[in-house]
Amino acid sequence: MTKILVTGGAGYIGSHAVVELAQAGYEPIIVDDFSNSKESVLAGLRDILGRDVPCHHIDCGNADALREVFRKEGNIEGVIHFAAFKAVGESVQKPLAYFQNNVGSLLTLIEVMNEVGVESLVFSSSCTVYGIPDQLPVTEATPTKPASSPYGRTKQMCEDIVHDVSAAPGNKLRTILLRYFNPIGAHPSAKIGELPLGVPNNLVPFITQTAAGLREKLTIFGNDYDTPDGTNIRDYIYVVDLAKAHIVAVQRLLDHKASEAVETFNVGTGHGNTVLEVVQTFEKASGQKLNYAIGPRRTGDVPAIYADATKAAEVLGFKTETSLFDALASAWKWQQTLK
Description:
Layout: E1 3-7, H1 12-23, E2 27-31, H2 40-49, E3 55-56, H3 63-73, E4 76-81, H4 88-93, H5 95-116, E5 120-126, H6 150-167, E6 174-180, E7 182-184, H7 203-211, E8 218-221, E9 233-234, E10 236-238, H8 239-254, E11 262-267, E12 273-274, H9 275-286, E13 292-295, H10 310-316, H11 324-338
Parallel strand pairs: 1-2, 1-4, 2-3, 4-5, 5-6, 6-11, 7-10, 8-13
Antiparallel strand pairs: 9-12
Helix pairs in contact: 1-2, 1-8, 3-5, 5-6, 7-11, 9-11
């Protein structure tokens, strides 16, 4: 079986990608320091797959520990790099931690990959690299403007690093940059899902925790944006659909089908929903009435962004399959198992 290293493989998107890799015939190897995830995820993966997934409890910013994983496992043929801090609001409060962790871990990973001769990398990027775009939807050719948060800047820097490394003489690294939009929902088994530590930074877990009575109310950050109902617009993609995009990307790299050293793809649904639309759709999908209030705008939030997903469809052969209603229903099912 082809071994694929998955950094941050116990995290929200990483764990779903591990399932899809295993079900597609790969052998996923997890690296995770559990700074933003829980070890209970490993039991969920075991329940879904019927076997344990190898997991190395290390920080992938630690070069010696990472070298040892490659040495121990042997024959790792590709890497999917998820490991990163990912909360826009928190990054405004703790910029240094975000630069050290997000940029530092990528530098270490590429250094070790070069040493051991692993050439295929799928990098977890973000639509935050577009900043506040002039036109919607954004295509891969949309100019990247100044990011609205330190988190967004780390993703811009990481993309720049990949391009510069790939352009260096003699370098063999081949990378696919996947620019995510907003992942939501949980695995249909409800064995794994979004598992925020402390107060959620993302909309949907805050919605589900409020509906479950764990939070008093949901605060919607601003209703005075230039959008149909005044709330932010985002492109909400079902996490299992997003995970499947990684399998297609890995296979493209291993089959040497990439047309250039670095390829970039938007991974979204191709349309946007306002925060209020998400709230109303959740109420329909769950049968729960949500207690919410309008609060002030949040620093670092972009008013509206959603994907043009044409390139992913035409080049990768990837399209999303799951509706907002069904994705939110899965998130509620997952929340109920957590009670």
